[in-house]
Amino acid sequence: MAPGGADARWLDAALALAMRGQGRTWPNPNVGCVIVKDGCVIGRGWTRPGGRPHAEAVALMQAGEAARGATAYVTLEPCAHDSARGPACADLLAAAGVARVVSALTDPDPRTAGRGHDRLRAAGIAVDVCAAEAGGAAGARRAMAGWLTRQQHGRPRVTLKLGLSLDGCIALANGESRWITGPEARAHAHLERSRHEAILVGRGTWDADRPRLDVRLPGLERFAPARIVMSARGAVDRLGPDDRVIAAPDAIAGLPCDNLLVEGGAGTAAAFLAADLVDRLVIYRAPLLIGGGRGAVGGFGLADLAAAHGRWALQDTRMLGTDRLDIYERRR
After folding, report:
1. Which residue numbers belong to the known binding site for NADP(+)?
2. pLDDT single digits (tens) 37-73
3. By three-state DSSP, how is residue 40 classified?
4. Chain segment 112-144, per-residue pLDDT in tens
5. CB distance 286 to 164 below 8 Å
6. Contact 104/62 with Cβ under 8 angstroms?
7. Which of 22, 123, 305, 317 gets the highest tally of CB atoms within 10 A of its CB?
């Protein structure tokens, strides 16, 4: 399918819905779906917390009988594998009688991997899939980056969050760090937390600060991530039943999440960077100088400056009150 026109517009709407489920649908992808008939939306949905119901099921329920002859725009190929948790979305769309399905991506999960599209075509439904370089495909890869990272690399997507002064400090020399950034930046950081299933700090940060690591935004409190402490010294006290302890960065593969937020401290950040496990950097920079404070990142074995260039691509930048937010993605 060529990008542009009405198809691109409706796919953008489906992508916006997919973002509503980011970090909340483990173990399923956060899919968005819009069902359109005669130029009007008759159903919309996104994968709900815990992974069910799927986006297509929600949208079809809204559309009802009007779905017959409509076009369904989905951010990922409708699933075709059987599950005890519900019917395959390809079968639901076929039973509803939609005339056409437009998908942003083919599902990399080997249980579907093209079978969903094949099943739809066998039912007489026209299927269009975005070209890999098209805007809809790129948007879907961004929206479902955590799930896709798990599919490709067998681990969650890792975001490293840093709150810095202009001279790269995260605290005074005595450890005081409240607050370097302003309220707008801190609110955005809580929004980031709500989009991750798990949040990780090092043992030193846990013992020194006893951070709550929750979400303190009205209406989003229930999306607080599970807390992970990285400790080479074993057991950690004051953890809840859903919280975990890991010994090293490579243990994240076993965590039940697709989106992992790493918040501190400097040694933990360095460990993840040294292991090349950071996929995304979220940096809040406050307009203040500390001088002689604690650095954001410890040494992680960089041998020369040439090796540092070209690793990070700026994805977004904006002002949050008086602070600047910069978001970078790892080039791989």
Report:
1. 163, 179, 205, 209, 265-271
2. 999 999 999 999 999 999 999 999 999 999 999 999 9
3. strand
4. 999 999 999 999 999 999 987 788 899 999 999
5. yes
6. no
7. 22
Whether the upstream peptide bond of residue 147 has omega within 30° of 0, thus cis, is no
| Alpha-carbon distances, residue 284 vs 12, 32, 183, 186, 195 (angstroms) | 28, 29, 12, 9, 17
Which residues, 6 or more positions from 229, have their beta carbon under 8 angstroms from its beta carbon?
A: 200, 201, 202, 203, 206, 236, 239, 243, 244, 245, 246
Single pTM value for the model: 0.91
Q: How far is CA 133 from the centre of its chain?
A: 21
Buried b (16+ CB within 10 A) or exposed e, 235-249: ebeeeeeebbbbeeb
Residues belonging to the binding site for Zn(2+) are 54, 79, 89
Annotated binding-site ranges for substrate: 177, 193, 213, 216, 263
SS3 273: helix
Residue-by-residue DSSP string for 154-191: SS-EEEEEEEE-TTSEEE-TTS--TTSS-HHHHHHHHH
Sketch out the chain's domains with CATH numbers.
5-144 (3.40.140.10), 155-330 (3.40.430.10)
Residue showing tokens 């993605």: 329
Residues flagged as binding site: 54, 79, 89, 163, 177, 179, 193, 205, 209, 213, 216, 263, 265-271
Strand, helix or coil for residue 14: helix
CA 189 – CA 134 distance, rounded (Å): 30
The catalytic residues are 56
What single DSSP character describes residue 253? G
Cis peptide before 110 (omega within 30 of 0): no
Cα gap 105→130, rounded to integer Å: 7
Question: Phi first, then psi: what are they for 88, rounded to 5°?
Answer: -70, 140
Q: Is the dihedral of CA 232, 234, 235, 241 positive or negative?
A: positive
DSSP strands (E only) in 20-94: 32-37, 40-46, 71-74
Stretches where the chain sits below pLDDT 50 are 2-3
